[in-house]
Specification:
The protein is mainly alpha-helical and 319 residues long. Helices cover 65% and strands 5% of the residues. Strands 1-2 form a two-stranded antiparallel sheet. The protein has a two-stranded antiparallel ribbon with strand order 3-4. A hairpin with a 2-residue loop joins strand 1 (174-176) and strand 2 (179-182). It starts with 12 loop residues before the first helix and ends with a helix. Mean pLDDT is 80; it is low at 5-11 and 311-319.
Length: 319
């Protein structure tokens, strides 16, 4: 059955319909050439041509599934409305890119501050006082004055990390070293894959407790607490709380108190996390460069990945 593309050339599915139609014509012509080559001479088809013919038939089945997907999606009113919201999606994408850049910059400044002003490796690279400005940390400290603005921003940053992990799992799947164990596919993910994904998200939430401490050290430790202290000229002035404040003037948060005690008593884990944060920044920079230089695919092409059209486990069992 030949499916006609939508009449409106402005609709984004039209180009994909035409490309699939052209691809189908090329594949069918190649299959006919291979069959005609052996039908005239009545020779047995070679193993190489059998493999090529099998691959062509697989590609034709994939094209047929994609055409069915586009046929259903082209009549979906909800997807048509989403296509009208693309300018807002672009604005949201720019905002998330800026947030990602601020997160990268804040982690980089914190690591540089630890490298220059921390208590050293034997103390888990803990910072007694923040020396370098940290944009996200400064914004959260000042937002604490307007309740509950800091909670909203803090929740947004944590949600940003979780959504980034979920998007990565959806695109790449679950890997063990160089072996892909499970693919995350809509309505076709194996139960074991779902369990591994949930466990990964639980570990990510656990790691966020330490990551957010490095991302916003002042906010997580003392918030906007201040105390009266002597300045350089001997005049009493309000100063932000730090570990150098007099005893009893400032109160540490329970989370920061637990992390500081852990790093002091088991400094090796603090040192490992410090160097792991440098590795995280390096991998993030490499990933950004690769995603920038990589050929971009449209949202519709990405939603029709080959893995999403593989036969599910239930279908294979029924066969």
């Amino acid at each position: 059955m030949i499916r006609r593309p939508p009449r409106s050339t402005l609709f984004p599915y039209t180009t994909l319909f035409r490309s699939l139609r052209d691809k189908r014509a090329v594949l069918e012509r190649r299959a006919v050439e291979i069959r005609d080559r052996y039908s005239e001479s009545n020779r047995k088809m070679s193993s190489r041509d059998q493999t090529r013919l099998f691959e062509i038939e697989e590609e034709l089945r994939l094209v047929d599934r994609r055409e069915r997907f586009l046929d259903v999606a082209s009549g979906n009113v909800f997807l048509k409305c989403l296509s009208m919201l693309r300018p807002f999606e672009m604005a949201l994408g720019v905002a998330l890119c800026m947030l990602g850049f601020l997160v990268f910059l804040s982690l980089l400044l914190t690591n540089i501050d630890k490298a220059m002003n921390s208590l050293g490796m034997k103390m888990g690279y803990q910072l007694a006082t923040r020396k370098l400005p940290n944009p996200i940390d400064i914004v959260l400290v000042y937002a604490e004055v307007i309740f509950p603005m800091d909670y909203v921003l803090f929740f947004g940053i944590a949600l940003f990390f979780v959504l980034c992990v979920m998007s990565t799992l959806r695109r790449t799947g679950i890997w063990f070293l160089w072996i892909r164990m499970y693919r995350i596919r809509p309505k076709r993910t194996r139960p074991q894959g779902l369990l591994m994904m949930v466990m990964t998200l639980m570990l990510v939430i656990l790691a966020l407790n330490v990551l957010l401490y490095s991302l916003t050290p002042q906010y997580v430790t003392f918030g906007n607490q201040q105390y009266w202290g002597n300045s350089t000229n001997g005049v009493l002035t309000l100063m932000p709380c730090s570990t150098e404040a007099p005893l009893g003037e400032c109160i540490l948060s329970q989370n920061s108190l637990l992390l500081n005690r852990f790093c002091y008593k088991a400094w090796i884990f603090g040192a490992i996390y410090y160097w792991a944060s440098w590795a995280f920044l390096l991998v993030s920079l490499l990933g950004f460069c690769v995603s920038t230089l990589k050929k971009r695919s449209s949202m519709l092409e990405d939603s029709m990945n080959r893995d999403d059209f593989d036969e599910s486990d239930e279908e294979l069992l029924r066969i």
